[in-house]
Amino acid sequence: MDHRPHQDHDIDNGTHDSNPAYFSDVERQHNHQRILLHPPLTSSTRSTAFLDGLRGLAALFVFIQHFIGRYDGNVHEQGFGQDGSYYLASLPFLRILFSGGSASVAIFFVLSGYVLSKSPLTLALNGNPNACATSLASATIRRPLRLYIPTLNVALAFALLLHAPFSLVPSLPWRQPKSNIFAELANWLDASLHFFNPFRTHGSDQAWYTYNIVAWTIPIELKGSMLIYVLTGIYAFSGIPQLASLTLLAVTVVVLLQIGKWTMACFIAGLIISVVDVHALDAAFLARRSTRRAQALITHAAFFVGYFLLCLPAHDGHPSFARDTPGYHHLALLTPRAYDRNQYYRYWHSWGAVLLLYAALRIRWLQAFLGTRPLRYLGRVSFMLYLVHLPVLAVMGDRVARALGQVYVKSEPSRWDYRVRVPDFGPVGMSSRCVLGFGVVLPVALVVSEFGTRVLDMPSVRFGKKLVSRMALDREGAGRKAVDGDGFGLAERPVHGTMTS
Question: Average of pLDDT values for 62-90?
Answer without folding.
Answer: 91
